Amino acid sequence: MKKPMTDADRGVLIIGGGLGAVRNAEQLRRAEFTGPITIVSSETHLPYDRPPLSKDVLRDAEKTIDAVVLKPREFYDEKQIELRLGSEVTALDPVARTVTLSDGGTLEYGEVIIATGLVPRRIPTFPDLAGVHVLRTADDSFALRGDAENARRAVGVGAGFIGCEVAATLRANGVEVVLVEPQPAPLLAAIGQQLGDLVARLHRNEGVDVRVGVGVDAVEGQDRVQSVTLSDGTRLDTDLVVLGIGSRPA
Could you tell me the end-to-end alpha-carbon distance of the chain, in angstroms, rounded to an integer? Predict the structure, then answer.
């Protein structure tokens, strides 16, 4: 008689290819779990670290994905962790214990870990123009870096962590930056008014034009962004717009 398949036989399926996915797989092997481990990621790169994307990677044109990968390919081979890169999970059936992939294929699992992270929020009313960026993935960072090489002016929408880091990096690379934040201070929800005011002062000392208490009403251009109109009526000519207005769960 054929032995029934157990959860251990089906293994652990990890959806997402970021730090959480890699650390879970690593700890399972450290805990002597010997069953199959599969990481399914919609990205084509080896799992990588995201914080440098708004700093070192954006600043230095010589930086490649190799500078931020969390583990080399040999690690996954040695630990017998299967990587399914460029595969997006579109559905999960918790009764059948299967996931469906974007190519129509399915994978079985014994246990599943959802480590898909976040997706940057966009403003639906903004037109789809070249030069308007969000920053979440390595490819986002490379695209923004390429655009910034030929840019003279940029507008950052949102002065959270991503907005502040990108503003500082672009300014260090010689781009004129206006950072727009509807709240009374940058990073208000995270660090409060007093420290937020200090962050604004530090940015201004470095040449970033920080404007608080004002939002963005419109982004305009032909094929490429050309200007931003603020809620106070101010019109800013720009070559780049970077949206840093928060994220939602993926």
Answer: 43
Rg (C-alpha) for the chain, rounded Å, is 22
CA-CA-CA-CA torsion sign (193, 198, 199, 205): positive
Strand bridging mode 153-157 / 98-101: unpaired
Phi and psi at residue 157, in whole multiples of 5°?
-105, 105
Q: Residue 156 has which token pair?
A: 């950052």
φ, ψ (nearest 5 deg) of residue 99? -120, 150
Measured distance CA(169)–CA(167) in Å, rounded: 6
Question: What are 96's two structure tokens?
Answer: 């059948």
Percent of the chain with pLDDT over 70: 97
Confidence of residue 1 (pLDDT cuts 50, 70, 90): very low
User: Residue 201 has what DSSP assignment?
Assistant: H
CB 241 within 8 A of CB 228: yes
How is residue 19 written in tokens? 């730090």
Q: Which two tokens stand for residue 10?
A: 């089906």
User: Averaged over 214-242, what is the pLDDT?
Assistant: 97
